[in-house]
Amino acid sequence: xxxxxxxxxxxxxxxxxxxxxxxxxxxxxxxxxxxxxxxxxxxxxxxxxxxxxxxxxxxxxxxxxxxxxxxxxxxxxxxxxxxxxxxxxxxxxxxxxxxxxxxxxxxxxxxx
Amino acid sequence: xxxxxxxxxxxxxxxxxxxxxxxxxxxxxxxxxxxxxxxxxxxxxxxxxxxxxxxxxxxxxxxxxxxxxxxxxxxxxxxxxxxxxxxxxxxxxxxxxxxxxxxxxxxxxxxxx
Lengths: 112, 113
Hints:
The complex is a heterodimer of chains A (about 110) and B (about 110).
Chain A: E1 4-6, E2 9-13, E3 18-24, E4 29-37, E5 43-50, E6 55-58, E7 61-66, E8 71-76, E9 85-93, E10 96-102, E11 106-111
Parallel strand pairs in A: 2-11
Antiparallel strand pairs in A: 1-3, 3-8, 4-5, 4-9, 6-7, 7-8, 9-10, 9-11
Chain B: E1 5-7, E2 10-13, E3 19-24, E4 31-37, E5 44-50, E6 53-57, E7 64-68, E8 74-78, E9 87-94, E10 103-104, E11 108-112
Parallel strand pairs in B: 2-11
Antiparallel strand pairs in B: 1-3, 3-8, 4-5, 4-9, 5-6, 7-8, 9-10, 9-11
C-alpha cells in the first residue's frame, strides 16, 4: 500500500549534523523527495532521488536510499538555525506518477 | 520568473458555503495538482489537471471539483463546506502530466466556521 512514515520530532545542536529518516512501503516508488516547510509557508523542494540511485549529494544535503529496506534519509551538515522547519519525505509511484504521497513530516528544531 | 502563485492567501467561510481557490503555475509548466494539508499532517493529493482535464483524483468527495484553463491556470472549488474542510490548500505545478519535480505555491489557508 501507499504509506510513508517519519518520526515526528528531531532536535539537534547548531553546527551538528541532522539526520531525518523515512520509511516507505511501496516498492514501485520511482522518485523519492525531501520537501521543507517553514511556518506559514508552502513546500520547498529540497532534493529528490531516482529510485535506482543510492545516494545524492547537494551542498550540505546528502540523501541516502536503501531500496532493500525501503529506507530514505536526509543528512543536513552543519545545521543552522535557518534549517528549523518541518521536513517531509515523499514519493511518486510507477503506477501513479501524477500524485506525490507525503509522510506526516519531521519537525527539526535547533538548539544553541 | 514568477513561481506558483495562489489566491487568496487566507479565507474564512461559513459551513454550507462554496469556495473557489485559484492557482497560476510556474512559467513553462502545464500541469497543476491540488493538495489539502490539515494541521499537523502532510499534504494529501486531491486531483491533478493536465490538458484541461482531471487526470487523477485522490480520495476526496465530489464536493471537491476543479478546472484548468487554456493558460494552464487552475481553480479548486469546494461546495457545501464542512468544518473539516479547514486546511491549507496547496497548488503544485509540474510538466507533462506527472508530479515529478513539482513546485508548490504558498497555499491558501481556508477556515470554515
